[in-house]
Design goal:
The complex is a heterotrimer.
Chain A: E1 5-16, E2 19-30, E3 34-38, H1 45-52, E4 60-65, H2 77-82, E5 85-88, H3 100-105, H4 116-129, H5 145-158, E6 163-167, H6 175-190, E7 194-198, H7 202-208, E8 211-216, E9 219-225, H8 231-239, H9 243-246, E10 266-273, E11 280-284, E12 289-293, H10 300-308, E13 313-320, E14 323-325, H11 330-335, E15 338-341, H12 345-349, H13 356-368, H14 376-389, H15 406-418, E16 424-428, H16 436-451, E17 455-459, H17 463-469, E18 472-477, E19 480-486, H18 492-500, H19 507-511
Parallel strand pairs in A: 3-7, 3-8, 5-6, 6-7, 12-17, 12-18, 15-16, 16-17
Antiparallel strand pairs in A: 1-2, 1-4, 8-9, 10-11, 10-13, 13-14, 18-19
Helix pairs in contact in A: 8-18, 13-14, 13-15
Chain B: H1 9-16, H2 19-41, H3 49-74, H4 82-97, H5 99-102, H6 104-107, H7 114-137, H8 143-161, E1 166-167, H9 171-177, E2 180-189, E3 195-201, H10 202-220, H11 222-232, H12 234-239, H13 244-270, E4 272-273, H14 281-291, H15 303-322, H16 329-358
Chain C: H1 13-29, E1 37-40, E2 46-49, H2 51-76, H3 83-99, H4 112-136, H5 141-159, H6 186-204, H7 207-216, H8 218-223, H9 228-254, H10 266-276, H11 288-307, H12 315-330, H13 332-351
Antiparallel strand pairs in C: 1-2
Helix pairs in contact in C: 1-11, 2-6, 2-7, 2-9, 2-10, 2-11, 3-4, 3-5, 3-9, 4-5, 4-9, 7-9, 10-11, 10-12
Classes of the chains: A alpha/beta, B mainly alpha, C mainly alpha.
Chain lengths: ~500, ~350, ~350
């Protein structure tokens, strides 16, 4: 093991059916450092953490821990706990039906019986020292999400740990709570604990971290000292574009037809849903391709979900071709000619056990009505047409969609919505987790559709895709719209600067 | 998000109390309102302590099965084989104890012994618990399917053991069956003016012991808290370092064992074996648990609540009977109605509370 | 893309294999099992006799229930265990309407069709009750239907004031027996009609697509404009209709009713039929024909057991074993292990 290292990973490999989530990743955590693990969604951060904590069994590579000779064997969360690794997960992994104190101590006390008095006293002491506004005896579910997250942190911190993993713990905390957490992290650092910190908030990284490891597409990009890596460079490493390359990117020329009088195809005013985004305004014109950009968790998907009625809309109004429309549920949106390709293909997109054919006709069929099913021959005809049109690689139209590769699944979902002949098509991360060839095909298709007069909103984590396809970009940070770029302003560096925020003024120098 | 710790008044209390305590409170209040209401409006039998003790005497086995059921439900499962197990146990014990009568050539001089019968009872229960627990916890089959099959298996086996109902005449057993434990100070004077002691059966004492032991298990033993954790959120429980599979397995094992014990208590109460014994008992046990504040979704529940659930159920049946609605069908309908109301109350209360908390 | 003319579903193999196994078993044990004779019944009508006819006769009730149960299972991922109790209700309703206030009327007090329609409405209402609990209150299907499971038989008894009406009109016995001049048992004809109707419904509406889609991925279905709650609700109402039909057959067989015994344990058989048809009890894709075939296979098993002089009350024990075996073999955990074993065996062969 390297000097002062508490945790070392060598050549970690982890695959899921169809995906290589981690490809030979190395990682070193030293004593008394706060180490940021960065990367866009799908980069493999969460997978890596779950390998360390024993939730996933790794396929290859080894884990070395300080104080243990040879590779550590971690097969379950209990093993990880016993080896001195404590973790706070992104989603709150506590039991809402138990008391605060129990949640702090369950699974790690010795003996057969529970000593409530001692447990509650200990818990109260910790809660007090961390200034968490909760009682030890209170049921966890009755606390606010922020308090629950603090309790999870308190639990992790209270364990005698050598390694503390914080997987996006701050998303539900407010500023003062984040400050408290940072204070805590610095104390632990002083005691020699190694901390892995995952977050999407760049400010926080630069505030507390000493070192950054960047992952992209399941591969290690590099390990950097924080002082050697300015913000813009960090963003470019995460997104996978070196700054030198930036000038080479040439977006295809877009015709800007400014027509102030043209009525937008869709216009949203102060739209807000229950998914936690700030109210936003939005419009899109006929034949336009625009996009929402921002890091993961910035609220891109929530905005388009609100437009489609997928989340519960709690405020604002929507105009379609100048007329007020009410969109309360997805069917309303579909009837208004809006189609939405969801971000999470597996959960919201495919209907896994159904055939490619059935998946293609699903939305159009729902629009057609319950008593007017397509004839079987017609569905084959449609399916064959779209399989050919989009070049979907499938054994037959009757193959279950779940046995297709990610890219082909995505094409099937795309076919589903194209079949509806929408006026306005929303594509939320249509290119995530699919091969390069398919990505290019999809981008070309988007431009072709726009050329035919369809309005398209395109969301992607890969900025160059957005630059190639969109004529206007809405930039989001921390769940609100922070800017809009169009025409000449559209460039990789401009986007990064707007996303990064604080360094906007200095940004010019960094690009030099 | 509002700080619910600072809210005063009812809504504050409502939001702050844990689900378990909230539902327990409702159950106890409902029971007392019902019983006192019956005393006031129907008087008669309800004023005598023995009426209450009879409720216990008639429902000793139900209390035990309901306790086991609550435990499984708290852990996020369900076990509908308990009624069948009770029937199988009473039939098996009956056949064993009366083997000198049923098979005089072989056993003429050797009637069955009571402690062996008890072992048979516990053994059957344990076997069901182990098999069902294994299928549910380690093969990850839905508990409802597994225990439904268990119920049919137990019912079928009961008739295979012996087809016709019969009363047990084993002397030692009859003596045990008729043992009455006098409860001092609660007796009453009958119409002829003779003082009659109030009594409970041995089964009731066993049932109360089970309630106490299980209460202690769920409250103070780590395993007991594990049941709550697994029922509340198995994923989280795993992350917190609880052995989820083993916990699920043990919940079914204990429930099976208790069903066996309940079978013996039931047998002591009725003193006979019959394939139709304890029909619908699984349903009553589930109903009692739900009325007692155990949530079907798991993670919430209390054994004391379950005890009151059984008492509420029995009381409402007594009220229905003494109100002149003696027809058999009223029992089924009232239980189902009560169950339905409590299910909906649970669903509504929890939804409302969630809303209050996210405001 | 090539279109297959005849699309043979692999799913049908499971019930067919079970059927073949049972047929072989009976052939070996006693070939007379398959004898069918033409005789006359007590009223002098020609009827077919034999074990096979019994299977067609009694399996039909199950087949009708299996239709509804398949849809409920597909959409909600759970099963309705109240069908037996609901049959008691619908049977009771039919008798009540036919008999009026007199429990032993000389003539029918209402046309049979009216009684049947009333039973349909009542059964669908009870189905709707279950559906509301499952779809809108989000209670697990088996638990929600437990309510009606307990109350059903009592409600049935209550409707007729716990009396046992007897119908003497002969035309009423046609539904559970034979129509004069037709030697085939009427229940089989009714089941055939039901199967044809559901096949037409599946062909001319999108019911099949919706139920499967909701059962496989509710969230995705919602984003495609389907209302998952309503689809679940609808399947329970359809099951209610199936229950009414079965209820008619059941009471017609006896011309009377026994509330605590009628259609006892039939829910178990109906669920088993769905499982035996190779349909996942966790919801999703289904094959209606396989379920229907599954129902007849169950009856085949039951009749075989009867013939081997297993008493009626001991039957559940044997069936429970079959169910558990089926379910265990179809769980992902066991399947994975079996796959591994298979691979190991093959690997060894290659080495050899």
């Amino acid at each position: 093991m390297k000097e002062k290292a508490v945790l070392e990973l060598h050549g970690i490999v982890k695959s899921f059916p169809g995906v290589r989530a981690l490809q030979s990743v190395d990682f070193t955590l030293r004593e008394g450092e706060i180490h940021a693990l960065m990367g866009e969604n799908g980069a493999g951060k969460s997978t890596l953490i779950k390998v360390i904590t024993g939730v996933y069994e790794k396929d290859g590579g080894e884990i070395l821990l300080k104080g243990i000779d040879g590779p550590a064997s971690i097969h379950s969360p209990q093993d990880a706990q016993n080896s001195g690794i404590s973790t706070v997960y992104q989603e709150i992994t506590l039991c809402p039906n138990l008391s605060v104190a129990e949640n702090m101590f369950i699974g790690r006390t010795k003996g057969l019986a529970t000593n409530w008095r001692k447990m509650n006293q200990d818990a109260d002491k910790i809660l007090k020292s961390l200034d968490i506004p909760a009682k030890a005896t209170q049921q966890l579910g009755t606390c606010s999400l922020a308090v629950q997250q603090m309790v999870a942190i308190a639990r992790a911190v209270d364990m005698e740990c050598k390694v503390l993993i914080l997987d996006e713990p701050t998303s539900s905390l407010d500023d003062s709570e984040v400050k408290k957490l940072f204070g805590l992290m610095r104390d632990l650092k002083a005691k020699g604990v190694g901390i892995i910190f995952v977050t999407h908030f760049l400010d926080q990284v630069y505030e507390v971290c000493d070192r950054i490891t960047v992952l992209r597409d399941g591969k290690l990009v590099g390990e950097y000292e924080i002082k050697d890596l300015p913000r813009v460079q960090l963003v470019s490493k995460m997104l996978g574009k070196e700054l030198d390359d930036l000038s080479d990117i040439k977006g295809e020329p877009k015709e800007e037809e400014e027509n102030a009088n043209e009525v937008p195809v869709l216009e949203a005013h102060q739209l807000q849903s229950n998914a936690g985004i700030k109210p936003f305004d939005f419009y899109i014109k006929k034949g336009e391709v625009n996009g929402f950009t921002g890091l993961l968790g910035s609220g891109r998907s929530e905005c388009v979900r609100a437009i489609f009625g997928a989340d519960h809309v709690i405020g604002g109004s929507v105009k379609k071709n100048g007329k007020d429309v009410k969109i309360r549920k997805p069917l309303d949106a579909m009837k208004n000619g809006i189609a939405y390709l969801p971000e999470d293909r597996k959960i919201d997109g495919i209907v896994g056990d159904l055939s490619v054919r059935e998946n293609i006709i699903l939305a159009a069929q729902v629009l057609r009505g319950f008593f007017r099913p397509f004839s079987k021959a017609k569905t084959y005809e449609i399916a064959d047409e779209y399989i050919k049109l989009l070049n979907i690689k499938t054994a037959s139209a009757d193959t279950p969609i779940k046995s297709l590769s990610g890219g082909n699944q995505q094409k099937v979902i795309l076919a589903r919505w194209l079949l509806m002949h929408p006026e306005y098509l929303i594509l939320d991360e249509p290119t995530r987790g699919i091969d390069v060839g398919t990505k290019v095909e999809i981008q070309k298709l988007v431009l072709k559709l726009a050329g035919e007069g369809m309005s398209v909103t395109f969301i992607s984590s890969e900025t160059d895709e957005m630059l190639r396809t969109c004529s206007r970009l809405v930039v989001m940070r921390d769940r609100k719209v922070v800017g809009e770029l169009k025409g000449d302003e559209l460039s990789q560096s401009n986007i990064m600067k707007t996303i990064a925020g604080h360094e906007e003024e200095k940004g010019g120098e960094s690009v030099e | 998000m509002g700080d619910n710790n600072k809210k005063g008044g009812f809504s504050g209390w409502f939001a702050r109390t844990s689900d378990t305590n909230l539902l327990l409170t409702i159950t106890i209040v409902v029971f007392f309102v019902m019983y006192i209401g019956a005393m006031v409006f129907q008087g008669g039998g309800f004023l005598k302590p023995q009426t209450f003790l009879h409720i216990l005497n008639n429902n000793g086995a139900l209390i035990i099965t309901a306790c086991g059921m609550s435990l499984v439900m708290i852990c996020g499962g369900i076990d509908i084989s308990v009624g069948g197990v009770v029937a199988l146990v009473s039939m098996s014990c009956a056949v064993y104890l009366d083997r000198d009568v049923l098979n005089p050539e072989k056993y003429a001089e050797k009637p069955g012994k009571i402690f062996v019968a008890l072992l048979i009872a516990l053994g059957i229960g344990l076997a069901f618990g182990v098999v069902q627990g294994f299928l549910v916890a380690y093969l990850e089959i839905q508990p409802f399917i597994v225990t439904l099959a268990g119920m049919f298996f137990a019912r079928g086996m009961t008739t295979i053991v012996h087809t016709d109902p019969f009363n047990v005449s084993n002397e030692a057993f009859v003596k045990l069956k008729d043992t009455r434990v006098i409860v001092p100070g609660l007796g009453s004077v009958n119409r002829k003016g003779i003082y009659i002691d109030a009594y409970v059966e041995i089964g009731v004492l066993v049932a109360l012991l089970v309630v106490i032991v299980l209460f202690a298990l769920l409250r103070w033993v780590k395993l007991g808290r594990g049941f709550y954790a697994v029922g509340g959120n198995p994923q989280s429980a795993l992350m917190l370092g609880v052995n989820v599979k083993r916990t699920k397995f043990l919940s079914h094992l204990i429930c099976g064992l208790l069903a066996g014990l309940a079978g013996f208590v039931y047998f002591m109460h009725v003193g006979s074996g019959s394939p139709s014994h304890a029909s619908g008992m699984e349903m009553n046990a589930i109903a009692s648990s739900i009325i007692g504040g155990t949530m079907l979704t798991g993670g919430v529940g209390n054994i004391i609540g379950t005890l009151f659930g059984v008492l509420s159920l029995a009381t409402i049946q007594n009220i229905v009977a003494s109100a002149g609605l003696g027809e058999a069908w009223w029992t089924g309908i009232t239980i189902a109605g009560m169950l339905c109301i409590f299910l909906v109350i649970q669903s509504v209360i929890i939804a409302k509370k969630k809303k209050l908390l996210t405001k | 893309m090539s279109k297959k003319k005849f699309n043979f579903d692999k799913q049908l193999l499971i019930p067919i294999a079970a059927l073949v196994a049972l047929v072989l078993f009976n052939l070996i044990v006693d070939p007379s099992f398959f004898k069918v004779t033409l005789g006359t019944n007590s009223s002098g009508n020609p009827v077919l006799n034999g074990y096979l006819i019994t299977i067609l006769d009694y399996g039909s009730e199950l087949a009708i229930l299996a239709i509804g149960m398949t849809l409920v299972t597909a959409a909600s991922g759970g099963q309705d265990i109240s069908v037996g109790a609901a049959i008691a209700i619908s049977g009771s309703v039919i008798l009540k309407v036919l008999c009026g206030s007199n429990t032993r009327p000389e003539t029918l007090q209402a046309p049979i069709i009216v009684a049947f329609l009333v039973a349909c409405v009542v059964s669908m209402l009870f189905g709707a009750f279950n559906g509301v609990l499952v779809a809108y209150f989000k209670i697990q299907p088996m638990v929600a239907t437990l309510i009606l499971f307990t109350a059903g038989r009592s409600i049935g008894a209550w409707i007729n004031n716990n009396e046992l009406p007897v119908i003497s009109d002969e035309s009423f016995t046609y539904f559970g027996g034979y129509i004069p001049g037709i030697p085939i048992p009427t229940p089989f004809l009714i089941a055939a009609v039901c199967v044809i109707v559901i096949m037409l419904v599946l062909k001319f509406t999108t019911l099949g697509l919706y139920t499967q889609s909701v059962g496989i991925n509710g969230s995705s279905s919602r984003l495609n404009g389907i209302n998952p709650e309503f689809v679940k609700f609808l399947t329970f109402v359809i099951l209610g209709l199936c229950v009414a039909v079965t209820g008619l057959i059941k009471v017609s067989r006896l011309s009377t009713i026994n509330y605590s015994v009628i259609a006892k344990d039939i829910e178990m058989d109906a669920i088993l039929a769905v499982a035996l048809g190779g349909n996942s009890l966790g919801g999703g894709k289904f094959n209606m024909m396989a379920s229907v075939l599954g129902a007849y296979v169950i009856q085949f098993l039951t009749t075989t057991l009867y013939k081997m002089e297993v008493s009626a009350s001991a039957l559940p024990a044997y069936k429970a074993i079959v169910v558990i075996l089926l379910v265990v073999l179809s769980t992902p955990v066991v399947r994975k292990k079996l796959d591994k074993l298979k691979r190991k065996l093959f690997a060894k062969k290659e080495v050899a």
